[in-house]
Amino acid sequence: RRARDIGARVAFFEPRMHEEVARRVLQENRVSRALQEAEFQLHYQPRVELKSRRVVGLEALVRWRNPDGTVDPPALFIPFLEETGRIVEVGRWILRQALEDQAEWARRGFLPLPVAVNVSPVQLREPGFVNEVIDLVAQIEGAPGAAACGLEIEITESTAMSDIARTSAQLKTLRDHGVAIAIDDFGTGHSSLAYLALLPVSMLKIDRSFIATMLEQKDSRTIVEAVISLAHALGLSVVAEGVETRAQAALLERLACDQIQGFLIARPMDAWSVTAFLPQAGRTGAADRTEAR
Ligand code: C2E
Ligand code: MG
Ligand code: MG
Ligand code: MG
Questions:
Q1: Cα(51)–Cα(132) distance, rounded to whole angstroms?
Q2: Tens digits of per-residue pLDDT, 32-91?
Q3: Which residues are within 8 A (CB) of 28 and not within 5 positions of it... i.e. 6 or more apart?
Q4: How far, in whole angstroms, is CA 131 from its chain's centroid?
Q5: Ligand 1 pocket, mutate which of 41, 61, 89 (most atoms under 8 A from CB)
Q6: What ipTM goes with this model?
Q7: CB within 8 A of 125, min separation 6: which ones?
Q8: For residue 221, what are the CA distances in angstroms to 208, 216, 240?
Q9: EAL domain: from which residue to which, for each copy (predicted)?
Q10: Global pTM?
Q11: Dist. CA 185 → ligand 3 center (Å)
């Protein structure tokens, strides 16, 4: 009976498995082509300090421009890249591109600003990851005329809390080489507060689900307040993500949140458009015109 069951299952699943394998091969070929044909693209979203109203950083967000001109958001392809491990290769390209864009802005006379890059747990699990990052920063910042602009790495709360001994050692090495660490989507995972205090982190980013609902839902507002207090108690700065309205920005300012990011300031934009947002040596930052209040 058991054997027949197994037989039936195999017969049932086999054709679908072939389909699945074929689909994967096709998709994986698309990734190689995308890297060759420069179909991946970085957009940047500025982050503003509430106190000064100035742009204090830029987050790199990857996009996939298909040959037909449509653009896929990361939610559509990052999970696949992670499952297949191809995020390692693509992530390498993302880091290099972000640092090169940043160096180019500095060369063109804009004040250096840190750039934040999202890093997947699959990249962190690669044994050579930390050294690669350090080498890349040294290579790009070591180029003639380059400025040290600062790199930040964003990892999600669940990534930060998994395999804590290893992650914490990796993050310490990065920090010792001048790379700042931010915990992304904070509030959506499970944090051990004891671990959080030990991790070499400099920033917490409150997940946008709490920001989106904090004006209507008491619970969300309580969480936002608690995360801000927690961050400050630990000596970290805190960023609210997904800020879309002036009312949200005003509440966050009252709650002493340090920085905001979101459509209220700007939608993610290409590297060229970003220069309109960058402060230039000798004049005040364009952020002053965004009036976050
Ligand atoms: P994240 O790191 O939390 O990035 C913030 C996401 O919120 C971005 O979506 C951004 O476009 C969106 N966003 C920003 N402001 C607002 C707002 O005011 N309202 C709303 N509704 N959304 C806002 P995006 O670009 O689709 O990225 C989604 C997620 O994909 C990111 O979340 C990050 O986890 C991942 N991701 C993006 N780029 C990369 C990358 O280069 N590497 C890796 N590993 N993951 C990436
Ligand atoms: Mg992020
Ligand atoms: Mg986030
Ligand atoms: Mg998020």
A1: 35
A2: 888 888 899 999 999 999 999 999 999 999 999 998 999 999 999 999 999 999 999 999
A3: 84, 86
A4: 19
A5: 61
A6: 0.98
A7: none
A8: 12, 8, 12
A9: 24-282
A10: 0.90
A11: 4
Regarding the beta carbon of 67 and ligand 1, being less than 6 Å apart is answered no
The per-residue pLDDT for 9 is 54
Supply the mean pLDDT for the chain: 89
Q: How confident is the model at residue 288 (pLDDT cuts 50, 70, 90)?
A: very low
**Cβ neighbours, 10 Å, residue 8:** 10
Q: Are 274 and 44 in contact (CB under 8 A)?
A: yes
- For tokens 């959506």, what's the residue? 188
> From the centroid of its chain, how far is CA 200?
17
Determine the distance separating the centroid of ligand 2 and the alpha carbon of 197, expressed in angstroms.
21
Minimum mean pLDDT among 4-13, 76-85, 114-123: which range? 4-13
State whether the beta carbon of 118 lies less than 6 angstroms from ligand 1.
Answer: yes
Ligand 1 pocket test, pick from 65, 101, 118 with the greatest ligand atom count within 8 Å of Cβ, gives 118
- For ion ligand 2, residues whose CB falls within 5 Å: 118, 154, 184
| pLDDT band, very low/low/confident/very high, at 291 (cuts 50, 70, 90) | very low
Distance in angstroms (rounded) separating the CA atoms of residues 81 and 88: 8
Q: Which two tokens stand for residue 80?
A: 């696949």
Nearest atom in ligand 1 to 74's CA? 30
